[in-house]
Structures are given as structure tokens and as C-alpha cells.
Amino acid sequence: MKLVIAVIKPFKLEDVRDALTALGVQGLTVTEVKGYGRQKGHTEFYRGAEYAVHFLPKMKIEIVIPDDREDQVIEAITASAKTGQIGDGKIFVTEVTRALRIRTGEADNNAL
Amino acid sequence: MKNKVLLPIGVVFFIAAARPAFADAGTINAADTAWMIAATGLVLMMTIPGLALFYAGLVRKKNILATMAQSLGSVAIVSLLWAGAGYSLAFSGGNAWLGSLDRILLAGIGMDSTNELAKNIPEALFMLYQMTFAVITVALIAGSVADRMKFSAFLLFGAGWLFLVYVPVAHWVWGGGFLGAMGMLDFAGGTVVHLNAGVAGLVAAYLLGPRRGYGTENLAPHDLSLAVIGTGLLWVGWFGFNGGSALSASPRAVMAIASTHFAACAGACVWMALEWWSRGKPSVLGMISGAVAGLGTITPASGYILPWHGAVIGVLAGLVCFWACTVLKERCRYDDSLDVFGIHGLGGALGTMLAGVFATAAISVTADTPNGLPGALEGNWDQLRVQAIGIAVTAVWCGVVSWILLKLIDAMVGLRVGLDEERMGLDVTLHGEAIQ
Asked: How far apart are alpha carbons B98 and B198 in whole angstroms?
């Protein structure tokens, strides 16, 4: 199994969710995060005090998928999250050694 | 040991209870009383929750509750001390320097009592109204030392400063003291409230030192929407602050309110324009700061001038206070965190001078002043000298006494929280609470 972590622009969340649902991916976890890559932040000005804000709001999506769906899912996320502007985000993939559905006790691929 | 404390307290109560009430029901006017009750509510609202929200919105999340605690604490402590002795020492006769002890613990204030200075309203009401002014002046000072002052030190400072600075100055300007006798014009507190708070704040900011990370870290406001709501409450409340200083439900109160409102609007517009021109974007913080600058600056002039003068004064307030909060603060490198000196201190001083410029005799015709009180534009250039003296006396007295008082409190309990506490935030470390 693979854990796919995608950091995307917040307004793209619904598009990515729709694309994953269309593929049959049944669940995902979303966290609001801040970060930056090559995209520069912005400056804020408060009555004489100027602050450089480096961290930008992003959405982090985490999904665990069977090995054979890896390429499809990455393809789907990339297509739906892309705007072509700097700051579109990144996708990371790691191995998952075990998975369990809490309610029923189903394991590994049956839990996804 | 107990007798040393209880016996004197018992004696004071006995004396207070024994004083006869002074009856003067014939002069109390119901309309004036009704307005002044409303004005008292409006001015109290300016502190809670007006100032509490205004300040809290400007600090970081970890200090929101502690900032509000300073306003709440000011209300509770200053109100009781005012009733106990502050009112008497400020407003009950006395000499050129201080009032008498006649009204200690509100002794002698009965249903029919009135104060010489406001025979048309019950004395208890006059006392309450003036109390709300003392309360907000102390609460204002907290802005300069945001995010780093011990709560105990702030409360001690508030109590001491009330008696050592606010009460004498209020007496000198309004309570029959030497500044009022000299003909100084201060309708609702340009010196007594704003200059006082600003100078005390500046001294405190200097003695406490800047916030950790000032100039390097991001100290951005956590929730400016709170500050905007606070500004609204302050703005509307100011109708009671300046309008109520007419002490009557009269055309004069209306004129004061009109010039007050236009000053706020002009201040907001000017600050907005300055930011739009200099930075390309008008900020909401700028708009509310301009409005408050206008309101603070118009305060001493409001009941002496024409409404359109208010707009002019508001423009000048926007210009001067904008300069103070951006250029002056940067140049002098002091961390007056919420710009109490830049807005209230300098605004109050500016407004007091401008009161001397724009004062219009027709507005201030009363039984005591049948020819009204003209300012420089109507030929009375000497008024500017009197205004300047009032500003200088207030600033110097406040600055010196505040400094001494703060040094004393530093020796007693320490003024500033420790580095770890400042980093963790005052809500958790001083009050054991947090905004979730």
C-alpha cells in the first residue's frame, strides 16, 4: 500500500476531491497547513510596522491506496490541482506497512 | 495589629456617615439628567467593551485575554477608588491644587445633592460621569505596554496613577484648580485624558523596554475585526464623551457631537488617503486609527467650536498622528505598542492647541460666561499661551510622576514579565486561560 501526500493550493481541494471520487478512492484526510517552496510570500503592513509573511496557506491531502492504483491517483491529483502558476504544490509517496478498519477489523487492502 | 487597620477605617466611616446631606433639589433638570445618564453609559461602554476589543484585536492571539483584563481591571479598581476618594479630591472645592476631603466615600451625597460645577444634575450622576473618564484614561495607558506588563504591576500603577496624576490634573483643569482659573480650554479631556494617557504610556513603554522580537519578528494583529468593532463602540461612545461634557441636553451638546463626528470622519479619510498614496493600499487599521486620532484630537475643542472646524481638526489629526505612528516612532525607536502616545498623547496636545485657535464665542455663551469664549481666530491670541501652559504642565507633571511611580512599582513587584512568560503568552501565564 502507498501513502500519497499532496500539498496543494487550498482552492483546488474540491477539484482534487472530485477527481479522486471519480477514480473510486473512498476516503481522504485533509489538513490546513502553511508552507512555501519557490513561491514567495507577501508583505503585510500595520500602522508603521511592515512584516514579511513567508508561509502561505496550503491544503495537505493524505490518502492510502493499493499499490496498483498509484500511477492513476498521482495522475488524477496532478491534473486537478494544477494551475500552471508557481505554488501549485507537491506530491510525495511513501510505503504503508499495515492498515486496519477500526469498525470491522478488515486489514490491509480490504481496509482501503 | 488588627486595630491599627480597623480603627482608622472605622473612624473614617463614622465621619463620612455623620456629614449632613446638602439639599439643592430646585436646580436639578430632568432632561439634562436623562441625557447625562445615557452619556455615562456611553462612556463606560467606551472602555468595556470598546477599548477592550480595540486593543485586544491588535495584539497576538496569546495575549488577547490579558489585554482585555487590563480594561476590565481598570473599570473595577478605578471605579471603586474614584468613589472612595478620587471624586472628592478632584471635584469637591478645595484650593488651586487639590480638592477637599468633603466627599470621601461619597459622604454627603444625597438624593438632592448637586456639585457646584453641574447644578442641573444630581451630584451622584456627576460623580459617575467623571468616574467613567478616570476609568478610560487608566485603561488607555495599557496600550503602550501591551504583551509584556505584569497584571499586578498594571493594577498597582493604575491605582497610584489615578491619585497622583489623574486626580490632580482633573482638579487643575475642571475641578476649580489653577489651570481652569487661568482660562484654559479643555472641553472633554484633551489634556486630562488623552495627553495624560499618552505621556504615561510613553514613559511606561520606555521603562519596560520593547517587546521581544520588536523589529525582527512578526507581531501582526491577531484579529483586526475585533479592533474594528471596538472602534465602532468608541466612536459612538464618544458622542457621550464629548456630548456629555456639555453636562446638559442642549444645543451645545449637539454642537460638540457634530464636530466630534466630523473629526472622526476626516481623520479616517486622511489616514486612508495617506496610505493609499504612500503604500498603494488603504488599510482597515489605518482607517480606524485615523478615526480614533480624529476623535482624540477633537476632544478638548469639541464644545467650543463650529462643526466644520471639527472636520478641519480631524484632517490635521490624521496628518500629525499618521506621522507620529510611522515616522516619529521609527526614528525614536520606542515600542509604544498600540500608539497611545502617537494618537492620544500627540492628538490630545494638538487638539488642546487647536481649541485655542478655533474657539468660537457664540458656542460657549453661558450664565458664567455671557460673552462666550473666543479663540485666536476671533482675536484672542493670548488663548494660545494659556493652552500651551496647560499642555506643558500636564505633560511634565504626568511624565515625572509616572516615571517615579513606575520605578517604585518595579522595586516592589517588578514591571515586566519574564522572557519565557512573554514567549508563551500572557493569557496562559498571567491568567491561566487561553483562546482555543
From this structure: 23
A1 grid coordinates: 500500500
Kindly report the CATH number that applies to the domain delimited by A2-111: 3.30.70.120
Q: Are strands A42-46 and A49-53 parallel, antiparallel or unpaired?
A: antiparallel
pLDDT in tens, B18-73: 444 444 568 999 999 999 999 999 999 999 999 999 999 999 999 999 999 999 99
Q: What residue ranges do the domains of chain A occupy?
A: 2-111
Flag whether the ipTM exceeds 0.90: no
Say which residue the cell 490634573 belongs to: B169
53-72 of A, contacting B, C-beta below 8 A: 53
How far off is chain B from A46, nearest CA to CA, in Å?
A: 7
Q: Which of B328, B316, B308 is nearest to B290 (CA)?
A: B316
Q: Where are the domains of chain B?
A: 26-431
Closest CA to B397 of B174, B205, B170: B170
Mutate to test the interface with A, among B224, B285, B340 (most CBs of A within 10 A): B285
Structure confidence by residue, pLDDT tens digits, A84-105: 999 999 999 999 999 999 999 9
| Contact assignment for A51 to B219 by CB distance below 8 Å | yes
Distance of CA B206 to the CA centre of its chain: 20
Supply the CATH classification number for the domain B26-431.
1.10.3430.10
